[in-house]
Amino acid sequence: MHRASAVMVLAAVVAGATAGCADVEGLKDDGDLGTAHAPQTLWKDVRPSAPPPGQESGTAAVVPGLPEVTGGDMRGVDALAVVRADITSAAEQDGGTGRLVDPRAVQRLALCTDAPDGGPDCPVRPAALHDVTGDGKAELITALDVDGRISELRVYTVRADGAVTRILSRRGVLEGVEVAAEHLAVREPTSNPRYISVSDYVWDPKAGIMNLSQLTLDECLALSDTPLSPDRSRCAR
């Protein structure tokens, strides 16, 4: 092919490619793809009131009424006593508004007995001990199941003065809770059954709490898919 002819053919292909997309039948026009619009802020003049002092769910809180813990480690601490003291105190602070704890939680705790594990009807999950602050000492991770779906997740540590302190409070549908390399990941279902949300919490030494560091969506596997990979979930509900 002569050079002039090749240039003409290339020019024709480029011109045609800008007019549409190619398929098995040739080129076709995609039509008007719409116009991008800037987001509109709804209710921009309405702002929520600040929470009263002591009712910020994202702050650390010393659990009242508990003895000082020596050694700075939650190992050997009565997990049920910690949860009882914390839930009772939180319920009194928020006055039943549900800001700090589900109003039903105190009633659920009444099902626990004096048995070491709280008895067969106790809604407090078995204590998990993991170092999530990086100081080599174990924190206490547990949850109170309010009903068949909603739970109150809690993480506690020991301050330098021996006070038991809540460093994470989270209410939600706990599809899964994972601990790895001082990260605490909370998996919860979303409105889209294809995805599950994953909230990753890490220790913030300046704030003295477990802070949200990343929020992602994880794709759910079909119930027939096997096996599960470590970073994906089967969403059954």
Structure characterization notes:
- By secondary structure, the chain is α+β, with helices and mostly antiparallel strands.
- It contains 3 helices and 12 strands, in the order αβββααβββββββββ.
- It has helices at 3-17, 79-94, 105-109; strands at residues 21-23, 26-28, 61-62, 128-130, 139-145, 151-158, 164-172, 176-180, 183-189, 195-204, 209-221, 233-234.
- A 5-stranded antiparallel β-sheet has the order 3-7-6-5-4. Strands 8-9-10-11-12 form a 5-stranded mixed β-sheet, with no helix packed on it.
- β4 and β5 form a beta hairpin.
- The longest helix is centred in the middle third of the chain and has 16 residues, at 79-94.
- The termini are far apart.
- Residues 1-24 and 223-230 have low confidence and may be disordered.
Task: Please describe the structure with a list of short key phrases separated by commas or semicolons.
237 residues; alpha+beta; 5-stranded antiparallel sheet; 5-stranded mixed sheet; 3 helices; globular; disordered N terminus
In short:
This protein is α+β, with helices and mostly antiparallel strands and 237 residues long. The protein has 3 helices and 12 strands.
